[in-house]
Amino acid sequence: MSLAAIWEFIAGDSRRAPLAVALAVAVAVVLLRNSVPSTVVATAFAGIIAFGLAASVFEAR
Amino acid sequence: MNGWTLAGTSFLASAVEAVEALTIVLAVGVTRSWPVALRGTAFALLVLGLIVALFGPLLHLVPIDQLKLVVGIVLTLFGLAWLRKAILRYTGRKALHDEDAAYAREVSALRAAEEAQADRIGLVTAFKAVLIEGLEVAIIVVTFGAASSAALGWSAAGAGAAVLLVIALGLALKQPASRVPENAMKFVVGIMLTSFGTFWTGEGLGIAWWGADLSLLLLAAFYLGVSAALVAAARVRGRVPA
Question: Is residue B242 part of a domain?
Fold first, then answer.
């Protein structure tokens, strides 16, 4: 089983959703390092993932 | 972490995959023989059981924050993939999974196989179907189990209960379970996996979720609202000419 097949098994065929997850993690790391309150970070984190879901639904297939 | 929530999500995910595997196993049972179909199924369940038994406890050797981060990201990706497909099916942009059509296809392919190899092909077909459908469940059970040994027990119990229920259904009906609301179940599982994944990724990064486990409910409600809005928006977009 190739890495591409394993990746597709876990993440499906969307490009935008995994990018959104990566972006959410990066933004959370930056915000936490800048002592932003957890509530704000949590909201931004979940919001970016939700945005990624939306982007993936309207992604060209 | 509420055990019943873990068991419930595992149960739903397992039930959906078990119904898809049941369709193939039924096709093999009807075209070849039940001993062939059940042998293939048993071998696959053994392999899946070994995966869970081996990898589940191994995960606890990894430091908890790193484990939550990795497991959380995997669950989030998994959940988003399930949720995306369920939303696309609700909007008609992806075909609903048709168990009757899948059954007919498999029966046709098995009947076309050469008699001398038919039993071997039947065994391999049943084995592959149960293994592939079961791998997603094994991943869910193992990643849920990363939270604690008790969590592994709850999620494995949920998965096991679903498998037993679907097997009983298959033995009773002896036909594909085409009336099971698969897409609705996948939609709910997608929301739960995405919620758990978001929660654990956040904990792994150092986010202190408001209300601790209560945030899981809030995340699930949030993703449910977003998904419902996306279904509505995608349907409207589909009706508007480009």
Answer: no
